[in-house]
Write a structure and sequence with these properties.
alpha/beta; single chain; globular
Length: 388
């Protein structure tokens, strides 16, 4: 009916998707005002933005082929709950944000039912890295994909799937804060080297990385006595991370809220991080860093057999250069990580090389300097209005 509010259903399960969803909600409301109704599933960021979430998605923050299996029954139950809610709400458009292991089941079910709901995926699967056949799969189940990187749309359009490059959300956000202001706000002295650790946002990855991160930090601290450690975490793993931080042999500043995380990045000199989108946040803040990752050995074996790219770090992928050290699986050890971190702490040429690369990568992440969330919202509204 003409003049009826546009009904948008959002589905985001992981912390990174939750942040993306909150930005999208703000952009949609900025465009449509009261002429939009938003429902769905999201975490604390989307709930703070006004979403009445169908359920708490924190227990679905899982990863890896074999890490998913123990939660298969929960995943399937939650999928049924979402499908029932979609039937009740009858939105004009469904936008799912990443988490394909879950959201793909929702899209597939709707497609098989012949549902009139327009289906959009926000954050394209990394078909350039592994499982290129997933592009054809998406073309059967969804109507449109919103991509973060400029090289992604042709990979989906080749299979008849419409795609729009909207840019990466790391390009937007609050104003940058200088190092001194950030340190004053966090109570960190000017004369210490702030080494920030980011052990991830999913329970499985945090549990896998905390021991090796702890040993790495202990080695660095034993060699350099002017080091303070910062740790950025998220709510669903905060208790585990704080308990771990309490055991570290150094003063530790733990932050969780997004504004505190941004301050910590601005205050940091060097970082050790789990592989993921956080590397782009560090790059935007100009923080030289090393990445590390460890998953179930069988998951790692399968991934390596399927992967199509030599890099996993997004800065390295965007530039097609090995700028940021990648310490993965068997290289995810303290005796490898500690020297890589201390090199960045002490070698100004290595730090400068990373910062120069960061600037080049950031320039490739936003189309025309526009807000990625606004571009995404414009596309969502356009598609949704076609079916409303």
């Amino acid at each position: 009916m003409t003049g009826a509010p546009l009904k948008v259903y959002l589905l985001a399960l992981e912390p990174s998707g939750d942040v993306l969803g909150a930005h999208l909600m703000a952009a949609l409301r900025d465009l449509e005002g009261d002429a939009i109704e938003i429902s769905g599933v999201g975490g604390p960021e989307m709930q703070a933005a006004g979403l009445d979430s169908l359920f708490d998605p924190s227990d679905l923050a899982i990863l890896g082929i074999f890490e998913v299996l123990p939660k298969a029954a929960l995943v399937l139950r939650r999928v049924r709950e979402v499908l029932d809610d979609l039937e009740r709400v009858q939105p004009d458009i469904l936008v799912t944000i990443d988490s394909w292991g879950f959201t793909g089941r929702v899209h597939k079910a709707l497609a098989k039912r012949g549902s009139p709901i327009k289906r959009v995926r926000y954050v394209a699967p990394q078909v350039w890295a592994w499982r290129p056949g997933r592009a054809a799969q998406l073309a059967r189940w969804i109507d449109h994909v919103l991509t973060l990187f400029s090289f992604e749309p042709p990979l989906f359009e080749a299979h008849g799937l419409a795609a729009t490059w909207v840019g990466h959300p790391v390009c937007e956000g609050g104003a940058d804060t200088d190092r001194k202001t950030a340190r004053d706000a966090l109570g960190i002295p000017d004369d210490v080297h702030l080494l920030t650790a980011l052990p991830g946002s999913r329970t499985a990855e945090v549990k896998a990385l905390m021991p090796v991160f702890g040993e790495t930090l202990a080695r660095v601290i034993a060699e350099y006595n002017d080091v303070q450690v910062g740790i950025a975490t998220v709510a669903n793993v905060e208790a585990d991370v704080r308990a771990w931080a309490d055991r570290l042999p150094v003063t530790v500043k733990v932050v969780t809220a997004p504004d505190q995380r941004r301050l910590l990045y601005a205050a940091s000199d060097t970082a050790l991080a789990a592989s993921g989108t956080v590397t782009l946040e560090l790059a935007k803040a100009g923080v030289p860093h090393v990445i590390a990752y460890r998953v179930n050995p069988v998951s790692a074996f399968v991934f390596r057999r399927l992967t199509k790219t030599p890099f996993v770090n997004l800065i390295n992928v965007v530039l097609d250069e090995g700028i940021v050290p990648e310490c993965l699986q068997e290289k995810c050890r303290a005796d490898v990580l500690a020297p890589a971190v201390t090199t960045l702490m002490t070698d100004e040429s290595a730090r400068a090389a990373q910062r120069e690369a960061f600037a080049r990568a950031m320039a490739q992440l936003a189309p025309g300097g526009e807000s990625p969330s606004r571009r995404a919202a414009q596309t969502v509204v356009q598609i949704g209005r076609q079916s409303a």
